[in-house]
Design goal:
The complex is a heterodimer of chains A (541) and B (631). Chain A is mainly β and 541 residues long. Helices cover 11% and strands 39% of the residues of chain A. The chains are: A mainly beta (541), B mainly alpha (631).
């Protein structure tokens, strides 16, 4: 009996020992293999490996989630080693005992463990201007390892705002089904639904807007046959419904006023060419909602009879409202597409505003469309007030449907502006600044020309924008098959404070703040346009 | 009054019952399977109709379904119904689901003390037959019903003992069921409450069951999931206006039957108890009675099933689906065979469009199109949605699957952007159906946008049924991104519009003229243009386009064109530019005969239909083809 117990105990001990030793042994073997691989001969001519997404030569935020990627080199086994090193120019030669992440895998998909990635970045941040180096080696079918030139990434000192809010939707024509406003934590892969239209009778949820990267003030447009057109406004963690729909919205830095556009949007379609869709504002104007009096107002300077105004944005000091404005190039406001729609170009304008007295100045043109021969859209000013980032495209008001839409930067100190080198031959649009003015997030179709993805890029103090990179995903092949578009990326410093269920209840609730729209247009189109041109009808779930 | 749950699946406890019930069950299921395989043929609707739920193996696709209650049941249905791509796969899966529903019903009957009426366990199969006949979109509802019944069986099996245990089991099974099957939980909760009320009765568990019907969806919508309150209750239930195609009342009737059965058995038990007759005794007597006539009951059920199948199977609707199927397979003769003789109400615009496409692809559009029913809108479906909200809603209701059928014709004609537009609408309406993804990949390849095409193909790669073929295409694209050697793509590229033309809605003639302007040899655009003019009886415009016959490369003038030329010349009394093409003596003779017969019959369409019904002459005079003349 006693012997049996001894044997049993020994067996249990052996199993336990094996359970502990085996992973350690595997890890040792892997490290030995890794060490051997990392000394394998380099491919000739020496070049970095092809990886997707392209994360080579970037400046990255110190708080970004792991930049998982897929190695596009053909092989049967993949070895990746990530380490950090101080930049030689920083005066350090090397630091002993640096953290490293070694990955050995049969799959070309490289996923860095989140905790170790964070630890590595934390350690690297102890030194000025650290670099990340990624060594990649690939074993070919004959068992021979090939090592590639390392991929170097620079780690910026300035963090990016930790949250990104996107509107996620399929490429949109007339019908929609799933529309989601989703919050993504950029420091990890965590995502949260801010609101999903599945819960709101399939309502159209449009542009979300925050006050200066903060969520104490937020608006979200809602449009639906069942719940009507409205705006959900979040103030200090409380949500309420405003009985009119704000178009593109910009919060005054004081949080007392929200400027918004009212647009008579129409969609039409091209029968040839890459992009099928096009959008015109047959009419538009700006208004503002005063939270103090709970009224919506407008002023001649922002809602001229003979002009189209849209895309408002405030200067960080709150003294200027920047917006886009174009003279009507068409006589007939009921024809679709209107005559000369491809000659409609917007200027950037600004108008002074005093929030205390609620008084507007005279509008003035900042850069005009005539200077560039392009339509200037979506102005967004860096929170430090130094730069104004905008889109320029050949015509119209909807850059996301214009493959030639590029990003431009205007230096508000010097008044000079230029096209950013980071612009691709495909559409760039919907940009936002990080609260420290060091990072921008923008939408781009550069990968495939159809699906909009969110890119991040570092802006150095001189205003130079470094190579952008797509928001990293846990699955590095995620974007290869993702049928959703990620638009309106807004960087925010803290998460949205209201639960999704609360927003849904507010949207569904009949209670709303009654607001009379101060902007009215002429009679709706009666000829020429059909419902197929009407923008965005709800689809069937 | 029966004592507690008795889970005795498929056996009477009698000598003959031990084999008779499973045997009867097996026979019924085999018959059902054969019926579905050879009559319903779900595999023909599977690739061509969007009612079947999509299924992909990637986690991003799964994530959509785990975020709301009831999503998993849809996901599982999508997985199971992939079997419908094989001729026997769909029937086997449908039979298995229906069989399980019947088995669960049997368990419920036994548990409620109704051993003598176990034949009723087959009633759900009979009630569901009409729904199986209209197979689209309903099968996901079968899965949610099955989930609710399986939940009930688990509950009946596990909930022995005290009230606390019963409540705990109900909470565990119910919570899981609610997450998996959404609103079907309500049905489960209701049946569980009735069971608890009638069998013992246990008032506390029954009360908990009933209260949970209100509380669970409310809590889910308010605190746990981003769903509307209405969806929290209704998701997965066969209610009108939900995410299904076709009427759902047969599935709803099945729910109703099961509810009535439970209620009836419960009341029957109560009544029996009041009269002082123990249910077991009644059951025993019933068993004896049934042993006497076991075949009669089974035959009665069989007859009922056959009657349900015969009465609710719409053979013409099935032929319409076959037309779609053959169009999808590019079996043009099959399309024409199935469309021939379809009653007018089934000869929809979609069928009309498919027939004309089949005629074009077999080179017979100009010779035989008037042998089939024709409407001016039947060349290309009307894509105008109307102006008012009412019009839009009505059309959207009619067109729920039409977006799915649109697009292929546009692409063949060279209207790549319109095809892309329609495919995107289908994507929005029906989700990433493989056929939609394929079309989007094709359009983007034709337009020289391989990066975008690759996204659709990569998504399609996660479909278990399309993986191999898609990977082969992606491999080809690695060396030839534009697939320059693909015959179909080259055909589309050679026909595609190269300039932006502002076409009004539904102006097929203007589209064809635009296409011919960019590619004068676009034969399909030419034939559709001529067909448009013929259908609209615009002979002047038709005659103006005759010189294009040479450019497009005809050897002889098609028969209908010859007839139209004769009509035009007779009407205008001047010769048209026949571009050197002659009228055949047969057509001349037929024309003369027709004029004579027209006068002789005093323009009686019915009298002329048999002889001249397939000619353009007949259509021109009467505005309908001979096939449309009511006898």
């Amino acid at each position: 009996m006693r012997d049996r117990w001894v044997v049993l105990s020994l067996a249990v001990a052996a199993v336990l020992a094996l359970a502990i030793a085996a992973p350690v042994g595997v890890r040792i073997l892997r490290w030995r293999e890794l060490g051997r691989v990392l000394h394998a001969p380099r491919v000739k001519p020496s070049r970095p490996p092809r990886i997707s997404p392209d994360y080579t030569g970037l400046v990255i935020p110190p708080n970004i989630a792991p930049l998982n990627f897929a190695v596009l080199e053909r092989g049967s086994r993949y070895c990746v080693n990530l380490r950090w090193m101080p930049r030689p120019s920083a005066g350090f030669i090397d630091v002993a005992g640096r953290a490293e992440i070694g990955i050995m895998s049969d799959s070309p998909a490289v996923r860095f463990p989140l905790r170790r990635w964070r630890a590595l970045l934390r350690e690297a941040q102890l030194y000025p201007s650290p670099m990340l180096t990624i060594d990649v080696a690939v074993r070919d079918d004959e068992g021979k390892w090939h090592r590639y030139a390392p991929i170097d990434l620079e780690v910026a000192e300035e963090p990016i705002d930790p949250y990104l809010v996107n509107r996620i939707i399929r490429p949109l024509y007339n019908y929609w089904t799933n529309i989601e406003i989703r919050q993504r934590c950029l420091e990890s892969f965590e995502e949260r639904t801010v609101v999903h239209n599945r819960a709101t009778a399939n309502a159209c949820l449009n542009c979300h807007s925050f006050r200066q990267n903060h969520t104490d003030r937020m608006t979200l447009g809602v449009r639906s046959g069942r719940v009507g057109s409205a705006t959900v406004m979040v103030r200090d963690g409380r949500a309420e419904k405003i009985g009119t729909k704000f178009g593109y919205t910009a919060w005054h830095p004081s949080g007392l006023v929200a400027a918004y556009s009212v647009n008579e949007v129409r969609q039409f379609f091209h029968t040839a060419g890459g992009e099928v869709r096009d959008v015109v504002d047959l009419d538009s104007g700006l208004a503002y909602y005063d939270l103090r009096t709970q009224t919506a107002k407008t002023a001649p300077a922002i809602n001229a009879e003979d002009r189209l105004e849209t895309y408002p944005t405030w200067s960080p000091d709150g003294k200027w409202l920047y917006f886009c404005s174009a003279a009507f190039p068409w006589q007939n406001r009921h024809k679709l597409p209107p005559d000369n729609y491809d000659r409609c170009r917007y200027d950037l304008r600004r108008v002074s505003y005093d929030v205390a007295s609620d008084r507007w100045g005279e509008a003035e043109t900042v850069p005009s469309s005539a200077e560039l021969g392009k339509s200037l859209l979506l102005p967004r000013i860096s929170p430090d007030g130094r730069f104004l980032l905008f889109c320029a495209c050949d015509y119209g008001c909807f850059p996301i449907y214009q493959p030639n839409s590029d990003l431009y930067m205007l230096d508000l100190k010097t008044g000079r502006y230029s096209r950013l080198d980071i612009s691709s031959p495909r559409s760039e649009s919907w940009h936002s600044w990080s609260s420290n003015s060091c990072w921008i997030a923008f939408s781009s179709k550069r990968r495939d020309g159809l699906f909009t993805r969110t890119y991040l890029a570092y802006v150095d103090p001189s205003g130079r924008v470094h190579k952008p990179f797509v928001v990293p995903q846990e699955d590095p092949t995620f974007y290869d098959s993702c049928l959703d578009t990620y638009t309106v990326p807004e960087l925010i410093a803290e998460p949205v404070p209201v639960r999704s269920q609360r927003l849904v209840n507010v949207i569904a609730s009949p209670q709303e703040v009654k607001v009379e729209s101060p902007v009215t247009f002429g009679a709706p189109p009666t000829s020429g346009a059909t419902a197929s041109d009407s923008p965005w009808m709800p689809g069937r779930r | 009054m029966p004592a507690g749950p008795q889970v005795i699946p498929m056996a009477d406890g009698t000598k003959s019952g031990s084999w008779w019930v499973p045997a009867r069950f097996a026979v019924c299921l085999v018959l059902l399977c054969l019926y579905v395989r050879y009559r319903v043929e779900p595999h023909i609707g599977f690739p061509t109709h969007p009612g079947f739920p999509n299924f992909y193996t990637n986690t991003a696709f799964l994530r959509e379904f785990v975020s709301y209650p009831g999503g998993l049941a849809t996901y599982v249905s999508g997985f199971l119904l992939q079997a419908c791509s094989w001729a026997w796969g769909g029937p086997l899966v449908i039979t298995a689901i229906v069989g399980l529903i019947c088995w669960c019903t049997d368990v419920l009957i036994v548990a409620m003390g109704g051993s003598r009426v176990r034949g009723l366990a087959f009633v759900p199969a009979i009630v569901l037959i009409p729904s199986i006949n209209a197979v689209f979109g309903q099968l996901a509802l079968f899965v949610t019903l099955l989930a609710a019944l399986l939940g009930l069986v688990f509950y009946l099996g596990l909930a022995a003992g005290g009230e606390g245990r019963r409540i705990a089991v109900f909470a565990a099974v119910g919570a899981l069921l609610y997450y998996v099957a959404g609103g079907a939980f309500l049905f489960f909760g209701l049946l569980a409450a009735l069971f608890e009320l009638f069998t013992k009765p246990r008032r506390l568990p029954a009360l908990v069951c009933l209260l949970s019907l209100e509380a669970v969806p409310y809590v889910a919508a308010t605190y746990l999931f981003t769903v509307s309150l209405a969806d929290a209750y209704a998701e997965g239930l066969p209610l009108p206006g939900r995410a299904t195609m076709g009427p759902v009342y047969w599935v709803a009737a099945c729910y109703g039957f099961l509810l009535a059965l439970t209620l009836g058995l419960g009341l029957w038990g109560l009544a029996a108890a009041r009269k002082g007759r123990p249910a077991e005794r009644k059951g025993g007597r019933a068993t004896r009675r049934r042993r006497d006539r076991p075949l009669v009951g089974s035959l009665a059920l069989l007859v009922l099933g056959v009657l349900a199948a015969l009465a609710t199977f719409d053979a013409n609707a099935h032929r319409v689906i076959r037309v779609d199927y053959f169009t999808w397979r590019e079996d043009w003769e099959g399309v024409l065979r199935e469309a021939r003789g379809l009653p007018p109400q089934y000869y929809t615009e979609v069928v009309n469009q498919h027939v004309n496409l089949a005629l074009y692809e077999t080179g017979r559009l100009g010779d035989e199109m008037f042998a089939y029913p024709q409407r001016p809108t039947g060349l290309m479906l009307d894509s105008d949605l109307g102006r008012t909200v009412g019009e839009q809603t009505a059309k959207m209701g009619l067109r729920t699957d039409l977006w799915f059928q649109l697009g292929d014709l546009d692409l063949r004609l060279g209207l790549a952007n319109e095809s892309e537009h329609e495919a995107h609408e289908a994507l929005a309406m029906h989700g990433p159906h493989p056929e939609v993804l394929k079309r989007l990949a094709l359009v983007n390849l034709a337009k020289g946008q391989p990066d975008a095409a690759r996204v659709f193909l990569n998504a399609l790669r996660y479909s278990p049924l399309h993986r191999t073929r898609t990977e082969a295409v992606l491999r080809r694209m690695a060396t030839d991104p534009y697939l320059r050697d693909d015959a179909f793509l080259n055909r589309v590229r050679s026909a595609m519009l190269t300039r932006d033309h502002p076409f009004p809605h539904n102006a097929l003639d203007q589209r064809c003229l635009g296409l011919l302007q960019d590619h004068p040899q676009n034969r399909m655009a030419f034939e559709y243009l001529m067909a448009w003019y013929l259908l609209n009886r615009d002979l002047a415009a038709f005659a103006r386009q005759l010189p294009r016959l040479k450019t497009v490369g005809y050897r002889t003038m098609p028969c209908h064109y010859q007839q139209a030329v004769l009509l035009y010349e007779k009407e205008t009394t001047r010769a048209s530019d026949r571009a050197g093409y002659s009228i055949s003596p047969d057509v001349l003779q037929e024309f003369a005969d027709f004029i004579q017969a027209l006068q002789a019959t005093d323009s009686d369409a019915a009298a002329l239909a048999e002889r001249f019904g397939d000619t353009y002459l007949f259509y021109y005079v009467f505005g309908i083809t001979g096939a449309m003349v009511q006898p």
